[in-house]
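subagent[fold] <- orchestrator: predict structure for attached chain, return tokens only, no commentary.
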Amino acid sequence: MESSSSPFEQSPSNHLPINPQLKCGESYISPDGPLHDDDDDVRSYRFHVALPPSHDVPPLDFRSRERSSGTGVLRPRSDETTSLDTAYDGPMDPHFFERGFYLEAKTGFQVWPGSRFLLEALLCDLPVGEDDAAWDRLTCWQNRLRRSSSSSVRPLRILELGSGMGVVGTTLAAAGGRVLVTDLPVLVRHGIRPNLRRNRTKPREDDLASDRDDEAPSSFLTALHPEEEERCPPVPVGRGYARPAVLDWFRPVESQLAASVVSDVDLVVACDCIFLEKIVDPLLDTLESIFRSSRDAACLFTYQRRNLMGVFIGLEELLRRIEERGWSVRCLAWRKIVVEEDGEHDLYLFETFSRTSKDLDGSGSDNV
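subagent[fold] -> orchestrator:
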């Protein structure tokens, strides 16, 4: 790619418009409605995802505290009769005093445009005759995820950073992945865990302990992490499994996740995480720890251009910092999005990996 010191220019050949094969919708939940066992005390919107028919899994259902932003879903009709953007209009976040709460965590209580973008890139058919190199990479990851449902192939092992409500990680699990869905404690407790329970499917006959790849047990989703008092069991979702875990980028990875888990990561995904200047380096430090432990791992991340540079990191500065770490980085896809009350923005999907990685050749092998 061109030096990040010059303005980044997107290529028309890897433009990826919204794909109707992945159906997303949203509806407002009345505060007077009944609470169910899987509902947290913070909920006001229902966000649902239907995977392309080829995946043959039921639609997924999520609860979020705030309305989604820039995802392209139609505004729910009930919103026309309410001015609520969030269920909370008081001066203080309801979880302010919980352990591990940062103000940045507030953004995790809604769904952002990068989530839908990455899911479409990994789950939907790609346009024909466009950027062959970028599409080859996406096709490679699509094939690896699709083959995860086969009993003869090692399932794709995914670690999601900054999962928020868990939409991306849960959906990738439904498509066949083994996904560790991570975020700050407050989001694991009030977002990821309730939404995983909500989308739990009946366990299959094949035992997770063997995880279909001749390992007994499979430590990626069953290992006890350093600060856990008891092991959190994986949740069967669709064709795969997901498990929640706490991962704070301001703390060492090895103090939070088991070494056997980090060394087993195939793919890291990070959607809508890279925006605030002050959290970029901690996130890249976390990613660097993962790359050191799992040398064949790669990361797919989304980036949305925003105003207020200085508070939000610019794309060229972000790419410069990534390259300074000796990593390869390339844009796989981009699109224009419209953010409510903020106009049109560019949204990108990048892939980055350590240059020591051996198997990122786009060949489509099992060791993508």
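orchestrator: received. Logging for downstream: The first strand starts at residue 23 and ends at 28. Residues 277-293 form the longest helix (17 residues).
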